[in-house]
């Protein structure tokens, strides 16, 4: 049993990590929506973000290596292309489609549709046998699907094209996080640190999105007065600055998301995500003027009920495994560790020993 001081420190740390995640997650959602009102090149914006994330990750890796005196992990080409590439491709398609959808839909519809990623994560977790099937999952699927239908039913700000983009992004997001879990659980790769994971993902993400950018935005961007045909220095600096700020927010989001999962659990991230969606919808209605009917709000509540049930079921079924998890040694636990599905009870068994591992 942890003493009260340790419990309090752990609680304060968790709340701090959640708030840190909220700042970047909610901030980049509103920032990208605002930027897309005047800058209609979401794929180019995503490429700039990937470049900034890679540069910041490389700089952070160098700083960590200098401070610790230990070399950072560097994958060989075989592992990089065969094990990292699928995760990178799924991640960039998820992010690219999500940013693209901001040209068509409101933040409230985006937030609601994106929350269905839980369904697809659950689906692919069952396919890859990372989640154990149980009959209550049918109720979870019906609640989330029914809530999404009610939210989009007779919506005054509904856009089919943007809705399909976000739904497709949610589907790919299910593949993305399942592959990310498989990638991070491989101890031999050494990608448990979020900075190392982000560093290795960005180049392949850039290469995967670049052909789609050339096809959809290449010519129009070259003839746009926002960048290449700009007549004055002021607008060019403004465009570059706004893109750079978005890139910094994207880096903060990726780092805070991986950090929250690594230092707590995917269960904490799921619970935090529920309240984050509530905050996002309330801010969208307040700041952006998104209009939502009573049926839309009821649909949102139904969907959140399904997500909450899923989180509750994960908590309940993990309790039965807590005793056996505590008997694992740290080495055994490291080999079997599933960073995106790690249970709260498992962490208590070796949390003190891994305290310095991830952020040293």
UniProtKB/TrEMBL annotation:
Keywords: Membrane, Transmembrane, Transmembrane helix
Domain Sugar phosphate transporter stretches: 16-309
Intracellular or extracellular location(s): Membrane
Topology relative to the membrane: Multi-pass membrane protein
Main location: membrane
Transmembrane segments: 12-32, 38-59, 103-128, 135-153, 159-179, 199-216, 236-255, 267-288, 294-313
CDD domains for the chain: TPT_S35C2
Gene Ontology annotations for the cellular component aspect, listed alphabetically: membrane
InterPro entries named in the record: Sugar_P_trans_dom, TPT_transporter
Coiled coil: none
PANTHER family linked: SOLUTE CARRIER FAMILY 35
Name of the protein described by the UniProt record: Sugar phosphate transporter domain-containing protein
Lineage: Eukaryota, Metazoa, Chordata, Craniata, Vertebrata
């Amino acid at each position: 049993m942890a003493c009260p001081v340790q419990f309090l420190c752990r609680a304060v740390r968790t709340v701090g990590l959640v708030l840190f995640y909220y700042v970047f997650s909610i901030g980049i959602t509103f920032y990208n929506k605002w930027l897309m009102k005047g800058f209609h090149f979401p794929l180019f914006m995503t490429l700039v973000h990937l470049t900034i994330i890679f540069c910041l990750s490389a700089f952070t890796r160098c700083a960590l290596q200098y401070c610790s005196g230990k070399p950072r992990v560097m994958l060989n080409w075989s592992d990089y292309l065969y094990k990292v590439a699928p995760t990178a491709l799924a991640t960039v398609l998820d992010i690219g489609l999500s940013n693209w959808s901001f040209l068509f839909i409101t933040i409230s519809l985006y937030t609601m549709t994106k929350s269905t990623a839980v369904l697809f994560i659950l689906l692919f977790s069952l396919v890859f046998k990372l989640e154990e099937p149980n009959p209550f999952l049918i109720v979870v699927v019906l609640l989330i699907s029914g809530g999404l239908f009610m939210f989009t039913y007779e919506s005054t700000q509904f856009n089919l094209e943007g809705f399909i983009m976000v739904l497709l992004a949610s589907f790919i997001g299910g593949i993305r996080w399942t592959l990310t879990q498989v990638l991070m659980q491989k101890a031999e790769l050494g990608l448990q640190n979020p900075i190392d994971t982000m560093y290795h993902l960005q180049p392949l993400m850039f290469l995967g999105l670049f052909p789609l950018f050339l096809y959809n935005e290449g010519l129009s961007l070259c003839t746009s007065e926002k960048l290449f045909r700009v007549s004055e220095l002021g607008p060019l600096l403004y465009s570059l600055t706004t893109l750079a700020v978005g890139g910094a927010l994207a880096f903060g989001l990726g780092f805070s998301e991986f950090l929250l999962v690594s230092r707590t659990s995917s269960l904490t991230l799921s619970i935090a995500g529920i309240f984050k969606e509530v905050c996002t919808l309330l801010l969208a209605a307040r700041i952006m003027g998104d209009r939502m009917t009573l049926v839309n709000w009821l649909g949102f509540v139904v969907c959140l009920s399904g997500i909450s049930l899923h989180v509750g079921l994960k908590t309940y079924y993990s309790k039965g495994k807590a005793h056996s998890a505590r008997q694992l040694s740290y080495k055994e636990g490291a080999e079997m560790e599933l960073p995106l599905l790690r249970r709260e009870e498992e962490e208590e068994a070796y949390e003190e020993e891994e305290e310095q591992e991830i952020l040293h």
